[in-house]
Amino acid sequence: MSSVEVAPAADLEGPGPGRGLTAAVTMLATVVAVVSGLTGALMAAVSLSGHVFGAWASPEPLSPGLIGAAMLGVAPGLLMVGRARVWEEVRTLVLPTAVVLLGLLAVSLLNAGQLQVVRGGSVFLVMFSLGWIAVLGLLALLALGCLARQYLEPARPPAPPVVPLPAWSKPFMAVLGSGWFGIGAGLLAVPGFWAALVPWHVDRPDAQALGVWGIALGVGVLGALAEDDLTRLRPALTALPGVALAVALVLGVRSSAVRWSSGPGLCLITLVGGLLAAGLIGQWLLSRRASPQA
């Protein structure tokens, strides 16, 4: 009587849906979270005290404080990347993170004459400036390598959406993402014109660095709209309110430097409030859909 071998259940089911998440991307996200959180907390804290602290010489403390706040706010979301199983669950946060790393490195090198190490200053600022370039350069190269490795991973059709975005939220997400991306692109590409529209005093590297963050936020929000599945957005849904709250704290403490009654000032309130609303409402919808299954 011949014996019949039964294949394991996993073999019968075949490979799971989506592109498997590589260890390289998980490690990159963790390293960036730690570096970004520590550096961002330092930059934001010094800005709150009323002093300018950054890799380049800024005209006033608000811009480096906002850059630091964004770095600090995104760190909790990056720490969640390790919990994901497939690339589709993290790409709405990892791809914008790569945009920030590459963009800030490019802005720093293009404005090398404004760096603290070139202009001279306190030893601490000069060392911070050197470290900023070295760490950004290393992380940018690692990001390119990790993304290349990730896209070499075998791709399978992703699972169908489990918790699609509500229809009423899609126009809101489209406007929010387009707003951040458009303003960011303007600040980065044409800082001489767009810097004058920022409701506080900025110079060229400040405007371009803020533009990089605007583009990254726009890519993340529009990417979430394209994913159309809240279960693939958990890290991004954690990062959005984190960035919004950290930025709002710096803006609130340094509010005297902002021309709130101007059009750009009102636009800033709307865009930051939109990030907070998108993150919190997304988390609420996801938890409400998951609660009956618990």
Give an account of the 3D structure.
- The protein is mostly helical and 294 residues long.
- It is built from eleven helices and no strands.
- It has helices at 9-13, 23-48, 62-79, 91-110, 116-119, 123-151, 169-189, 191-194, 204-227, 234-253, 263-290.
- Helix 3 packs parallel to helix 9 (204-227).
- The longest helix is centred in the middle third of the chain and has 29 residues, at 123-151.
- The chain is globular.
- The termini are far apart.
- The model is unreliable at 1-15 (pLDDT under 50).
Helix/strand-derived class? mainly alpha
Instruction: Give Rg in angstroms.
Output: 21 Å
CA-CA gap between termini: 47 Å
Low-confidence stretches: 1-15
Principal-axes shape call = globular
The arrangement of helices and strands along the chain is HHHHHHHHHHH
User: How much is the average pLDDT?
Assistant: 92
Number of strands: 0
How much of the residues is beta strand, in percent?
A: under 5%
By DSSP (H or I, 4+ residues per run), the number of helices equals 11
> What profile does the largest beta sheet have?
none
Provide the helix percentage: 55-70%
